Amino acid sequence: MASRRQFIKKTSTGLMGIPLVYSTMDLYAKDNIYDGPVLKVAIMGLGSYAARVAKAMDDCKKAKITGLISGTPSKIEKWKSEYEVESKNCYNYENFDAIKDNPDIDAVYIITPNGLHAEQAVRVAKAGKHVICEKPMGVNAKEGQQMVDACKNAGVKLLIGYRMHFEANTLEIVRMRKANEFGKIIFFQGQSGFIIGDPNQWRLDLKLSGGGAMMDIGIYSINGARYMIGEEPLWVTAQETKNDPVKFKEGIDETIQFQMGFPGGAVASCLSTYAVNHLDRFYLNGIDGFAEMQPSTGYGPIKARTHKGELSFKHIAHQTVQMDEMAGIILEGKEPSIPVNGEEGVKDMKIIDAIFKAAKTGQKVLLN
Ligand code: NAD
Which residue's alpha carbon is at the smallest distance from atom 2 of ligand 1? Predict the structure, then answer.
Protein backbone atom coordinates (compact mmCIF):
# COMPACT_ATOMS: atom_id res chain seq x y z
CA MET A 1 0.00 0.00 0.00
CA ALA A 2 1.45 3.32 -1.02
CA SER A 3 0.66 6.34 1.11
CA ARG A 4 0.28 9.73 -0.52
CA ARG A 5 3.60 10.81 1.01
CA GLN A 6 5.37 7.72 -0.37
CA PHE A 7 3.73 8.37 -3.70
CA ILE A 8 4.99 11.94 -3.85
CA LYS A 9 8.49 10.92 -2.74
CA LYS A 10 8.68 8.03 -5.19
CA THR A 11 7.43 9.99 -8.14
CA SER A 12 9.34 13.16 -7.49
CA THR A 13 12.60 11.20 -7.50
CA GLY A 14 11.61 8.71 -10.14
CA LEU A 15 10.59 11.01 -12.97
CA MET A 16 12.19 13.62 -15.18
CA GLY A 17 9.38 16.07 -14.43
CA ILE A 18 7.04 15.94 -11.47
CA PRO A 19 3.47 15.46 -12.70
CA LEU A 20 1.38 18.52 -12.13
CA VAL A 21 -1.18 16.76 -9.98
CA TYR A 22 1.17 16.31 -7.00
CA SER A 23 1.46 20.03 -6.45
CA THR A 24 -2.32 20.24 -6.66
CA MET A 25 -2.76 17.45 -4.10
CA ASP A 26 -0.70 19.56 -1.71
CA LEU A 27 -3.19 22.34 -2.36
CA TYR A 28 -5.75 20.43 -0.31
CA ALA A 29 -3.50 19.93 2.71
CA LYS A 30 -5.30 21.27 5.78
CA ASP A 31 -2.68 23.90 6.57
CA ASN A 32 -2.32 25.17 3.02
CA ILE A 33 -3.53 28.69 2.31
CA TYR A 34 -3.60 29.50 -1.40
CA ASP A 35 -3.17 33.14 -2.30
CA GLY A 36 -2.21 32.89 -5.99
CA PRO A 37 -4.21 33.72 -9.13
CA VAL A 38 -7.76 32.38 -9.54
CA LEU A 39 -9.36 31.37 -12.87
CA LYS A 40 -12.74 33.03 -13.38
CA VAL A 41 -14.99 30.49 -15.10
CA ALA A 42 -18.40 30.82 -16.75
CA ILE A 43 -20.35 27.58 -16.98
CA MET A 44 -22.27 27.08 -20.24
CA GLY A 45 -25.14 24.58 -20.06
CA LEU A 46 -26.62 24.09 -16.60
CA GLY A 47 -27.49 20.39 -16.85
CA SER A 48 -26.66 17.39 -14.72
CA TYR A 49 -22.91 17.21 -15.30
CA ALA A 50 -22.57 20.98 -14.93
CA ALA A 51 -24.24 20.64 -11.52
CA ARG A 52 -21.63 18.07 -10.49
CA VAL A 53 -18.79 20.26 -11.74
CA ALA A 54 -20.18 23.32 -9.95
CA LYS A 55 -20.53 21.48 -6.66
CA ALA A 56 -16.96 20.15 -6.93
CA MET A 57 -15.69 23.64 -7.74
CA ASP A 58 -16.79 24.75 -4.26
CA ASP A 59 -13.59 23.05 -3.06
CA CYS A 60 -11.35 24.53 -5.76
CA LYS A 61 -8.53 26.83 -4.70
CA LYS A 62 -7.51 28.13 -8.10
CA ALA A 63 -10.81 28.27 -10.02
CA LYS A 64 -14.13 29.92 -9.27
CA ILE A 65 -17.52 30.18 -10.99
CA THR A 66 -18.08 33.82 -11.93
CA GLY A 67 -20.45 33.51 -14.91
CA LEU A 68 -23.40 31.48 -16.22
CA ILE A 69 -24.71 30.81 -19.73
CA SER A 70 -28.07 29.09 -20.13
CA GLY A 71 -31.22 29.22 -22.25
CA THR A 72 -33.43 28.74 -19.18
CA PRO A 73 -33.93 31.90 -17.07
CA SER A 74 -35.21 29.93 -14.06
CA LYS A 75 -31.96 27.91 -13.95
CA ILE A 76 -29.93 31.11 -14.08
CA GLU A 77 -31.89 32.46 -11.10
CA LYS A 78 -31.33 29.30 -9.08
CA TRP A 79 -27.62 28.99 -9.90
CA LYS A 80 -27.00 32.72 -9.44
CA SER A 81 -28.02 32.59 -5.83
CA GLU A 82 -26.39 29.23 -5.16
CA TYR A 83 -22.99 30.23 -6.54
CA GLU A 84 -23.16 33.99 -5.85
CA VAL A 85 -22.86 35.00 -9.49
CA GLU A 86 -23.64 38.63 -10.38
CA SER A 87 -26.52 39.29 -12.82
CA LYS A 88 -24.20 41.19 -15.15
CA ASN A 89 -22.20 37.95 -15.66
CA CYS A 90 -25.21 35.87 -16.77
CA TYR A 91 -25.95 35.26 -20.46
CA ASN A 92 -28.12 33.18 -22.78
CA TYR A 93 -27.14 31.35 -25.99
CA GLU A 94 -28.06 34.36 -28.13
CA ASN A 95 -26.09 37.05 -26.34
CA PHE A 96 -23.07 35.29 -24.84
CA ASP A 97 -20.66 36.74 -27.43
CA ALA A 98 -20.78 39.84 -25.19
CA ILE A 99 -18.51 38.04 -22.70
CA LYS A 100 -15.70 39.55 -24.75
CA ASP A 101 -16.16 42.79 -22.80
CA ASN A 102 -16.48 41.10 -19.43
CA PRO A 103 -13.29 41.06 -17.33
CA ASP A 104 -15.02 38.84 -14.75
CA ILE A 105 -14.75 35.86 -17.13
CA ASP A 106 -11.42 34.28 -18.15
CA ALA A 107 -12.73 30.98 -19.49
CA VAL A 108 -15.99 29.27 -20.45
CA TYR A 109 -16.60 25.63 -19.54
CA ILE A 110 -18.91 24.17 -22.24
CA ILE A 111 -21.09 21.40 -20.74
CA THR A 112 -23.82 21.15 -23.38
CA PRO A 113 -24.79 18.30 -25.76
CA ASN A 114 -21.86 17.16 -27.95
CA GLY A 115 -23.33 18.42 -31.21
CA LEU A 116 -23.28 22.02 -29.93
CA HIS A 117 -19.68 22.07 -28.66
CA ALA A 118 -17.89 23.08 -31.86
CA GLU A 119 -20.01 26.11 -32.70
CA GLN A 120 -20.07 27.26 -29.07
CA ALA A 121 -16.30 26.81 -28.67
CA VAL A 122 -15.61 28.85 -31.79
CA ARG A 123 -17.83 31.67 -30.47
CA VAL A 124 -16.11 31.62 -27.07
CA ALA A 125 -12.70 31.73 -28.75
CA LYS A 126 -13.78 34.64 -30.95
CA ALA A 127 -14.80 36.45 -27.76
CA GLY A 128 -11.20 36.08 -26.63
CA LYS A 129 -11.89 33.70 -23.72
CA HIS A 130 -10.22 30.36 -22.98
CA VAL A 131 -12.31 27.29 -23.79
CA ILE A 132 -12.77 24.30 -21.52
CA CYS A 133 -15.00 21.80 -23.32
CA GLU A 134 -16.55 18.55 -22.22
CA LYS A 135 -15.76 15.28 -23.97
CA PRO A 136 -16.28 14.35 -26.71
CA MET A 137 -14.96 17.73 -27.94
CA GLY A 138 -17.25 17.59 -31.00
CA VAL A 139 -18.97 14.99 -33.13
CA ASN A 140 -16.01 14.18 -35.41
CA ALA A 141 -12.34 15.01 -35.99
CA LYS A 142 -13.17 17.75 -38.50
CA GLU A 143 -15.13 19.67 -35.87
CA GLY A 144 -12.37 19.07 -33.34
CA GLN A 145 -9.78 20.53 -35.69
CA GLN A 146 -12.00 23.58 -36.33
CA MET A 147 -12.09 24.16 -32.58
CA VAL A 148 -8.29 23.81 -32.30
CA ASP A 149 -7.78 26.25 -35.19
CA ALA A 150 -10.27 28.79 -33.81
CA CYS A 151 -8.58 28.81 -30.40
CA LYS A 152 -5.13 29.05 -31.95
CA ASN A 153 -6.21 31.99 -34.13
CA ALA A 154 -7.73 33.75 -31.14
CA GLY A 155 -4.68 33.10 -28.95
CA VAL A 156 -6.71 31.28 -26.28
CA LYS A 157 -6.29 27.83 -24.76
CA LEU A 158 -8.55 24.89 -25.54
CA LEU A 159 -8.76 22.21 -22.85
CA ILE A 160 -10.95 19.09 -22.92
CA GLY A 161 -12.66 17.84 -19.74
CA TYR A 162 -10.55 14.70 -19.43
CA ARG A 163 -10.84 14.49 -15.63
CA MET A 164 -9.04 11.10 -15.44
CA HIS A 165 -5.82 12.77 -16.64
CA PHE A 166 -5.49 14.24 -13.15
CA GLU A 167 -6.60 11.23 -11.11
CA ALA A 168 -3.95 9.94 -8.71
CA ASN A 169 -4.29 6.17 -9.27
CA THR A 170 -4.29 6.69 -13.02
CA LEU A 171 -1.20 8.86 -12.82
CA GLU A 172 0.63 6.34 -10.65
CA ILE A 173 -0.02 3.54 -13.16
CA VAL A 174 1.14 5.77 -16.00
CA ARG A 175 4.25 6.58 -13.95
CA MET A 176 4.93 2.87 -13.40
CA ARG A 177 4.51 2.16 -17.10
CA LYS A 178 6.91 4.99 -17.99
CA ALA A 179 9.40 3.62 -15.45
CA ASN A 180 9.14 0.22 -17.23
CA GLU A 181 7.75 -1.48 -14.11
CA PHE A 182 5.33 -3.54 -16.24
CA GLY A 183 8.00 -4.34 -18.84
CA LYS A 184 7.08 -4.30 -22.51
CA ILE A 185 3.35 -3.61 -22.82
CA ILE A 186 1.49 -6.35 -24.64
CA PHE A 187 -2.22 -5.91 -23.95
CA PHE A 188 -4.83 -3.41 -22.80
CA GLN A 189 -8.46 -4.16 -22.15
CA GLY A 190 -10.99 -1.35 -21.75
CA GLN A 191 -14.64 -1.90 -20.88
CA SER A 192 -16.93 1.11 -20.74
CA GLY A 193 -20.70 1.00 -20.51
CA PHE A 194 -23.99 1.59 -18.77
CA ILE A 195 -27.65 1.06 -19.61
CA ILE A 196 -29.04 4.27 -21.08
CA GLY A 197 -32.49 5.27 -19.82
CA ASP A 198 -34.98 7.73 -21.36
CA PRO A 199 -35.24 6.98 -25.11
CA ASN A 200 -36.05 10.65 -25.82
CA GLN A 201 -32.87 12.18 -24.39
CA TRP A 202 -30.35 14.08 -26.56
CA ARG A 203 -27.77 11.26 -26.13
CA LEU A 204 -29.90 9.15 -28.50
CA ASP A 205 -30.44 11.99 -31.00
CA LEU A 206 -27.75 11.82 -33.69
CA LYS A 207 -27.64 15.56 -34.39
CA LEU A 208 -27.01 16.43 -30.74
CA SER A 209 -24.88 13.44 -29.74
CA GLY A 210 -22.91 12.51 -32.89
CA GLY A 211 -23.31 8.82 -32.03
CA GLY A 212 -24.30 6.51 -29.23
CA ALA A 213 -22.30 4.81 -26.50
CA MET A 214 -18.96 5.42 -28.26
CA MET A 215 -19.21 9.22 -28.05
CA ASP A 216 -20.41 9.14 -24.48
CA ILE A 217 -18.62 6.33 -22.68
CA GLY A 218 -16.58 4.31 -25.22
CA ILE A 219 -14.32 7.34 -25.57
CA TYR A 220 -12.95 6.50 -22.09
CA SER A 221 -11.59 3.17 -23.34
CA ILE A 222 -10.05 4.84 -26.40
CA ASN A 223 -8.47 7.61 -24.37
CA GLY A 224 -7.47 5.18 -21.61
CA ALA A 225 -5.78 2.79 -24.05
CA ARG A 226 -3.69 5.70 -25.32
CA TYR A 227 -2.52 6.97 -21.93
CA MET A 228 -2.12 3.52 -20.41
CA ILE A 229 -0.07 2.14 -23.33
CA GLY A 230 1.60 5.50 -23.99
CA GLU A 231 1.44 5.23 -27.78
CA GLU A 232 -0.90 6.22 -30.60
CA PRO A 233 -2.71 3.38 -32.41
CA LEU A 234 -1.84 2.48 -36.01
CA TRP A 235 -5.07 0.70 -36.88
CA VAL A 236 -8.54 -0.18 -35.64
CA THR A 237 -11.05 -2.94 -36.29
CA ALA A 238 -14.60 -2.86 -34.93
CA GLN A 239 -17.79 -4.91 -34.73
CA GLU A 240 -21.20 -3.47 -33.91
CA THR A 241 -24.12 -5.25 -32.24
CA LYS A 242 -27.58 -3.72 -32.09
CA ASN A 243 -30.36 -5.51 -30.20
CA ASP A 244 -32.77 -2.57 -29.94
CA PRO A 245 -32.97 -0.76 -33.31
CA VAL A 246 -35.96 1.27 -32.14
CA LYS A 247 -34.11 2.89 -29.26
CA PHE A 248 -30.75 2.94 -31.07
CA LYS A 249 -31.52 4.42 -34.48
CA GLU A 250 -29.21 4.66 -37.50
CA GLY A 251 -25.93 6.25 -36.41
CA ILE A 252 -26.56 5.68 -32.70
CA ASP A 253 -24.36 2.76 -31.64
CA GLU A 254 -25.65 0.51 -28.88
CA THR A 255 -22.62 -1.78 -28.53
CA ILE A 256 -19.29 -1.74 -30.36
CA GLN A 257 -16.35 -4.02 -29.69
CA PHE A 258 -13.14 -2.61 -31.11
CA GLN A 259 -9.48 -3.41 -31.30
CA MET A 260 -6.47 -1.13 -31.76
CA GLY A 261 -2.92 -2.00 -32.73
CA PHE A 262 0.01 0.03 -31.41
CA PRO A 263 3.51 0.60 -32.85
CA GLY A 264 5.28 -1.27 -30.03
CA GLY A 265 3.22 -4.40 -30.74
CA ALA A 266 0.59 -3.93 -28.02
CA VAL A 267 -3.05 -4.64 -28.84
CA ALA A 268 -6.10 -3.09 -27.15
CA SER A 269 -9.41 -4.92 -26.99
CA CYS A 270 -12.32 -2.74 -25.91
CA LEU A 271 -16.06 -2.76 -25.39
CA SER A 272 -18.30 0.31 -25.57
CA THR A 273 -21.97 -0.16 -24.73
CA TYR A 274 -25.26 1.39 -23.70
CA ALA A 275 -26.65 -2.08 -22.90
CA VAL A 276 -24.70 -3.25 -19.80
CA ASN A 277 -24.42 -1.65 -16.38
CA HIS A 278 -21.35 -1.53 -14.10
CA LEU A 279 -18.95 -1.83 -17.01
CA ASP A 280 -15.96 0.27 -16.02
CA ARG A 281 -12.70 -1.64 -16.10
CA PHE A 282 -9.15 -1.15 -17.42
CA TYR A 283 -6.54 -3.87 -17.53
CA LEU A 284 -2.95 -3.23 -18.65
CA ASN A 285 -0.62 -6.13 -19.14
CA GLY A 286 3.14 -6.10 -19.69
CA ILE A 287 5.78 -8.83 -19.79
CA ASP A 288 6.73 -8.13 -16.14
CA GLY A 289 3.47 -7.06 -14.52
CA PHE A 290 -0.07 -5.72 -14.72
CA ALA A 291 -2.41 -2.96 -13.58
CA GLU A 292 -6.12 -3.38 -13.04
CA MET A 293 -8.62 -0.60 -12.39
CA GLN A 294 -12.27 -1.21 -11.52
CA PRO A 295 -13.93 1.22 -11.44
CA SER A 296 -11.50 2.89 -13.79
CA THR A 297 -13.21 6.06 -15.00
CA GLY A 298 -16.34 6.53 -12.86
CA TYR A 299 -16.63 9.48 -10.50
CA GLY A 300 -14.69 7.56 -7.89
CA PRO A 301 -13.24 6.47 -5.68
CA ILE A 302 -11.20 4.65 -8.33
CA LYS A 303 -9.96 1.24 -7.25
CA ALA A 304 -6.64 0.11 -8.64
CA ARG A 305 -4.09 -2.62 -8.06
CA THR A 306 -0.94 -3.75 -9.77
CA HIS A 307 1.26 -6.85 -9.50
CA LYS A 308 2.95 -4.95 -6.63
CA GLY A 309 -0.25 -4.50 -4.62
CA GLU A 310 -3.20 -2.20 -4.14
CA LEU A 311 -3.05 1.55 -4.69
CA SER A 312 -4.82 3.67 -2.14
CA PHE A 313 -4.68 7.33 -2.94
CA LYS A 314 -7.03 9.67 -1.19
CA HIS A 315 -10.14 10.38 -3.24
CA ILE A 316 -10.61 14.01 -4.17
CA ALA A 317 -13.56 14.85 -6.43
CA HIS A 318 -12.14 14.56 -9.96
CA GLN A 319 -13.73 17.80 -11.07
CA THR A 320 -12.15 19.74 -8.18
CA VAL A 321 -8.68 18.56 -9.12
CA GLN A 322 -9.35 18.98 -12.83
CA MET A 323 -10.43 22.61 -12.49
CA ASP A 324 -7.53 23.52 -10.19
CA GLU A 325 -5.13 21.85 -12.62
CA MET A 326 -6.72 23.59 -15.60
CA ALA A 327 -6.36 26.92 -13.80
CA GLY A 328 -2.65 26.10 -13.42
CA ILE A 329 -2.40 25.33 -17.14
CA ILE A 330 -4.20 28.52 -18.20
CA LEU A 331 -2.86 30.98 -15.64
CA GLU A 332 0.60 29.60 -14.92
CA GLY A 333 1.45 27.79 -18.18
CA LYS A 334 1.79 24.45 -16.40
CA GLU A 335 2.08 21.24 -18.44
CA PRO A 336 0.02 18.25 -17.27
CA SER A 337 1.72 14.84 -17.51
CA ILE A 338 -1.15 13.55 -19.69
CA PRO A 339 -2.23 16.31 -22.09
CA VAL A 340 -5.77 17.73 -22.03
CA ASN A 341 -5.39 20.15 -24.93
CA GLY A 342 -7.47 20.32 -28.09
CA GLU A 343 -4.94 18.26 -30.05
CA GLU A 344 -5.41 15.44 -27.52
CA GLY A 345 -9.16 15.64 -28.11
CA VAL A 346 -8.71 15.49 -31.90
CA LYS A 347 -6.66 12.29 -31.54
CA ASP A 348 -9.63 10.59 -29.87
CA MET A 349 -12.07 11.97 -32.44
CA LYS A 350 -9.94 10.58 -35.31
CA ILE A 351 -10.03 7.16 -33.67
CA ILE A 352 -13.82 7.37 -33.18
CA ASP A 353 -14.23 8.30 -36.87
CA ALA A 354 -12.09 5.26 -37.77
CA ILE A 355 -14.00 2.93 -35.43
CA PHE A 356 -17.34 3.95 -36.99
CA LYS A 357 -15.86 3.34 -40.45
CA ALA A 358 -14.43 -0.04 -39.41
CA ALA A 359 -17.75 -1.12 -37.87
CA LYS A 360 -19.63 -0.12 -41.01
CA THR A 361 -17.27 -1.66 -43.57
CA GLY A 362 -15.96 -4.61 -41.58
CA GLN A 363 -12.48 -3.55 -42.73
CA LYS A 364 -9.36 -2.76 -40.74
CA VAL A 365 -8.91 1.04 -40.83
CA LEU A 366 -5.41 2.48 -40.77
CA LEU A 367 -4.73 5.65 -38.81
CA ASN A 368 -2.06 7.85 -40.42
P1 NAD B 1 -27.62 17.17 -19.62
O2 NAD B 1 -28.70 16.82 -20.59
O3 NAD B 1 -27.84 16.86 -18.19
O4 NAD B 1 -27.29 18.73 -19.73
C5 NAD B 1 -27.15 19.39 -20.96
C6 NAD B 1 -27.46 20.86 -20.78
O7 NAD B 1 -27.37 21.50 -22.05
C8 NAD B 1 -28.87 21.12 -20.24
O9 NAD B 1 -28.83 22.09 -19.23
C10 NAD B 1 -29.63 21.66 -21.44
O11 NAD B 1 -30.65 22.55 -21.10
C12 NAD B 1 -28.52 22.34 -22.21
N13 NAD B 1 -28.81 22.52 -23.62
C14 NAD B 1 -28.51 23.62 -24.32
N15 NAD B 1 -28.95 23.50 -25.58
C16 NAD B 1 -29.55 22.32 -25.68
C17 NAD B 1 -30.20 21.64 -26.75
N18 NAD B 1 -30.30 22.19 -27.97
N19 NAD B 1 -30.67 20.41 -26.51
C20 NAD B 1 -30.54 19.83 -25.32
N21 NAD B 1 -29.93 20.43 -24.26
C22 NAD B 1 -29.45 21.67 -24.45
O23 NAD B 1 -26.30 16.49 -20.17
P24 NAD B 1 -24.96 16.24 -19.36
O25 NAD B 1 -24.96 14.86 -18.83
O26 NAD B 1 -24.74 17.35 -18.42
O27 NAD B 1 -23.87 16.27 -20.54
C28 NAD B 1 -23.37 17.49 -21.07
C29 NAD B 1 -21.95 17.27 -21.65
O30 NAD B 1 -21.11 16.84 -20.59
C31 NAD B 1 -21.86 16.18 -22.72
O32 NAD B 1 -20.92 16.59 -23.69
C33 NAD B 1 -21.36 14.97 -21.98
O34 NAD B 1 -20.62 14.08 -22.79
C35 NAD B 1 -20.48 15.62 -20.94
N36 NAD B 1 -20.35 14.79 -19.71
C37 NAD B 1 -19.11 14.55 -19.23
C38 NAD B 1 -18.95 13.79 -18.09
C39 NAD B 1 -17.56 13.56 -17.53
O40 NAD B 1 -17.43 12.77 -16.60
N41 NAD B 1 -16.54 14.23 -18.02
C42 NAD B 1 -20.05 13.27 -17.44
C43 NAD B 1 -21.32 13.54 -17.94
C44 NAD B 1 -21.46 14.31 -19.09
Answer: 47
